[in-house]
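Q: Could you fold this chain for me?
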Amino acid sequence: MAPRRPEASRAGTLHLIVRRTIKASAEQLFRAWTEPEQLVKWWGPPPARCPHAEIDLRVGGQYRIANVFPDGSTIWICGEFERITPPRILVFTWRLEGFEDGDERVSVRFQGRGKTTDIIVTHERISTAEAKQRHEQGWNGCLDGLAMYASSSS
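A: Sure. Below is the predicted structure, expressed as structure tokens.
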């Protein structure tokens, strides 16, 4: 079942940070995050899957990512890129398509450490504690998927 959308009329003030060390270079992980053909192979916290992603990787460019759940429901995550510094930083707005709430913001940092990379996801402007908890579970699930994808691609 798709997660419920909080009933907020504007962006919130909560934020969270999720970290993961993955055995892959920052360049590999940045490409996995920004190339649609790679992103669909790992994105989506279980039980969601991602059959489609669109990415216009430029400042001001849009992205759109499908999350399909076992019951067949689909949510589209979309937003705009605010900062792109390959292979170190991505900053983008975050919202669920069809909801006019204020945009949340996500920053992803890729800190290369030789054969591994620390990924730090900072999700800001979250409106409720319930939404923050769902985002934390979601990001942990996505980073698990990225780690598995990176290990199978090496």
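A (continued): The domain at 14-153 is CATH 3.30.530.20 (Alpha-D-Glucose-1,6-Bisphosphate; Chain A, domain 4).
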